[in-house]
DNA sequence: CCTGTTGTCTATAGGTTCATAGATGGAATA
DNA sequence: TATTCCATCTATGAACCTATAGACAACAGG
């Protein structure tokens, strides 16, 4: 059913040139399959097919399918949170920090889109314990965004009547949705981020070229 | 596993007061379960549990699980497209029509959020034929939004340098993401829509109270 | 009161999927 | 060369899940 990767299909029977520990490739294959068909829609057989090994062999690398999902999700958010925290705490006006937050939030799509997609769409299927752990991370990120936006309101960079909660959810929604339509070959991710920044800062409406800050 | 609805659990064995054709309730139950656990994560048994009937009894109402998914998705988009088309073709400046488009795009969340969620997240699991049919609808909606935005650029209501494609995807992403966090009890949907409209039209940045159109 | 219709039930076949157990054979090491 | 480790294999159990078949009870209409 699934397409067998040419790279990893070694003709004969067993043994790759595997110089040991190819766990990363295993997880990448899981990410790809989960991203494509969803966690429950994908079978461990599908993952094995991508790698050109037997279904049972996967269990040398993870203890259960759910365990694999957690590994993928973790890789999907790795670094994410720390980067955001650093930016938020860093220098510059709120509006510039927000721009950098958006940039850094979208950046991983360029080289890890499968992992990010799985994190966004499938984390709900994690078993209780790890779901809560990962959900905590997610709410943390929301707070970072919202805090920066609030700072921007307090410093009068942003409109005083801005609903910071809704603005946060709007921005994250817009950014996260990108994962579902982004294709590496088309528009570069920086370009998308820049356009989003412009959109939420200045809006779509045309204006007189007037000076912008009071 | 799933919670058995009190309302529909008639104590004894069989027979409801069902005054005939409770198909709508069946589909609503499917929508709820699919929304909660995803199409593949949900079993027909789960749906039956919600209704308090036997798993096999469901097949009186639909021919297959995938068939049920299609019914749910259809109800999820029902009216959607026509409403949007009417608004786009209607009177008023582009910016006002865009506002109405956003309103009408979010409105169904108020009373059909399960159906909308399933449409957004699970339509990919529809079998080939119906997936294409429904995908066509989806692309049509994108076009309606983008056309209105383009008109706004041509009429100089919107910035001349606006990337209309990205703006469209950003707005739809923001709106669709709402389905994942919206709870009926909290902020009313009109309020959310209004705030989104304000955000994408005027942006977040504070400005001098100056006259707005050149 | 008989009959057809409707909605539900019981029972089950058949397929798929996750996961475990134990064998095997090449590579590395001694 | 002998031994140990690593990664994969074969084989299979057990659970689960969809879907079909056929029985049956309540009600409606004549």
Describe the structure.
The structure is a homodimer of 214-residue chains. The first copy, chain A, is mainly α. Helices cover 62% and strands 0% of the residues of chain A. Chain A contains 9 helices and no strands. In chain A, α3 (65-77) crosses α6, α5 runs antiparallel to α7 (128-154) and α7 packs across α8. Chain B binds a DNA duplex (30 and 30 nucleotides) through loops.
Topology record:
The structure is a homodimer of 214-residue chains.
Chain A: H1 23-37, H2 44-51, H3 65-77, H4 80-89, H5 94-106, H6 109-122, H7 128-154, H8 164-181, H9 189-202
Chain B binds a DNA duplex (30 and 30 nucleotides) through residues 13-16, 18, 20, 22, 43-45, 53-57, 59-61, 63-65.
Give me the count of strands of chain A: 0
Q: Tell me what portion of residues of chain A adopts beta-strand conformation.
A: under 5%
Task: Report the uncertain regions of chain A.
Answer: 1-19
Structural class of chain A: mainly alpha
* Largest interface: pair, residues per side: A-B, 50 and 51 residues
Shape of chain A: elongated
Task: List the total number of helices of chain A.
Answer: 9
Quaternary structure classification: homodimer
Cα radius of gyration of chain A in angstroms: 21 Å
Order of helices and strands of chain A: HHHHHHHHH
Mean pLDDT of chain A: 89
Proportion of helical residues of chain A: 55-70%
Largest sheet of chain A: none
Gap from first CA to last CA of chain A: 62 Å
